[in-house]
Amino acid sequence: MKRNFLITTGIKDTWEFYENNFLLGKWCEFDIFGKEKLNGKVPQETSTIKNAYHCRNGEKRIKDYEYIKNKIEYLLELISEKLSIIHKVDENKEYWRVIIFSWLSDYTTTIFYRWESIRMFFKKNNKENFYSNFIPLNDSDYIQENHTNYIRVTQRDEWNHLVFLRLFRFLNISNLSLIEKKITRNNLKRESSLDTIKPHKHPLIIKLIDNIISKFAFRFNKVIFESFYFPKKEYIKICLRCKLIPSKYLSIFDFQIKKNSLSKDNNSKRIKLKNLLANIENQDKFIQFLLLNIYKDMPKSYLENFSEIKKKILPIAKDKKIIFSMYSLERNDNFKIYIAETKKVDSKYIHVDHGAGLSGGFTNIIRPFFDFYEKVSDKVIIGNTKQKQDIYVNLSPIFPTIKSKYLKTGNNCSIIFVERVKYETKFHAGPTLNQTISMFNELTQFVNKLNPEIKSKVKFRAKENIGLNSENLFLEMFGKNSIDKASLKNTYDKTMLNSKLLIITYPETAFSQAMYSNVPTILIVKKNHYLFSKTALNTFDELKKSKIAFDDFDEARIHINRHWEEIDLWWKQKNVQSAKEMFLTNFCNVKSDWFKEWSDYIYFTSSNFIKEINRTEKEN
Hints:
Largest sheet: 5 strands, parallel
Radius of gyration: 26 Å
Helix content: 40-55%
Oligomer: single chain
């Protein structure tokens, strides 16, 4: 009789191919089935039982979101106090919020997803006995330097295997037996497609030039635009108006701490955190688990490396400035420490929202970082006019294609696709991994059924490979000429201008940019995959009436086949343009004088700030 084995990751060494393999989630089969089975490495008769993923239910997602939102505040209070003790500093919770909240929200959410997967599985399978193979891995091998590296490790099978093993041991599940596999870390069979991911990098010559300019510019400028993506000519105009030296500051916050610069005392900080958290009582078992394990996963930038990072940051944090930024406060720990320190001298941080669409942004029901940006920013610039609180400033949304208007030059039928991560790390209002894979499968069937002329002009563009490797899968099915590879040179702007029609499969920034640029565009999404706001739902329904939006691939295919030859005639119809304008008004409201709007805001904000600095200096 076959035994039941619970599979928690895609590590082949933990599978039992001639037993019953219960897959905890879609991520387990990701790297195994497909090529591996075709190559004969996995027996054809392997018995697998798939588990329904717990966060598919919308009501549960919202309930879980509220639960974690409350718990993170508790954890922040607790860990802030302990970090101040460890680093021998007198800093309050708000100081540490700037530095650790985004990581803490990622970490708590990540562990919660694993916790719930196990809890729900054994709630449903509480009568049968299960086994699970484990590989003895060392926690210390997976401690990361910073938040960015931590995000990468959460997508590795090994780290997730280690987390699931910790959970099994903590929960002590009565109908689960653990079996140790005598395999060392070096002998593990690694096949994660994520190893090949190469982030877009700026050319070396640009980095060298910016490095020279930025050091001087950072000292001279009272206003800093950091990770701030604005059209180049307009950015230079703003800098000239505000008497600023234009700079991207690419290298100011991009540095690593060398091991030989650390004192021996730093090595004991992780153990101190463990000891300080070990005896805290809490009735919530999930929080108990976190308090016992968080020291194993906290990046070095908050423990061992914190003092050295702070030491490098302090000289530039003493000057009072206004900082405009879009991305860095999310994951750049050096930048976070800078903001926390420079706030002490009354510097102002203005966060600029960088997304627009039916899903995502500051109006969404579920937000990955909860209310982090509102609590740490002096102002938050958004492109949605519905938000009226004082913290928000409503300006036109800014994106790279803001100056692009559709010219009749393209012939392609471009398909824009976005992947979900293999292992969940955030709360989001969009589809699960299972749903994304299902969407991709439907998409490929849809392409096969398009008229031959249209099919020959299909170009598939994936935002990036973060687990599914959809670009390679599409290439294998439809050939090399079907791929439009995203890169710094091959921008989305170029894709739009080369397109006769854009087919977009997620209702976020790419869709908004296409609608604003007035490229004939079709949105295909499953409405039940998203937690849309009421306004978003109403807008989607209007887009659907005008055949801009579809939640059925067959209906979209029939429409495209019918109108392909004269797609512009359909796009320019009064009801279609009216629906497009309704969407833009509600979700991507770029004003005709967007540049003046931004230029005036930055100029007057910086002028008043500089006057305040000068007045303070005279008084002192």
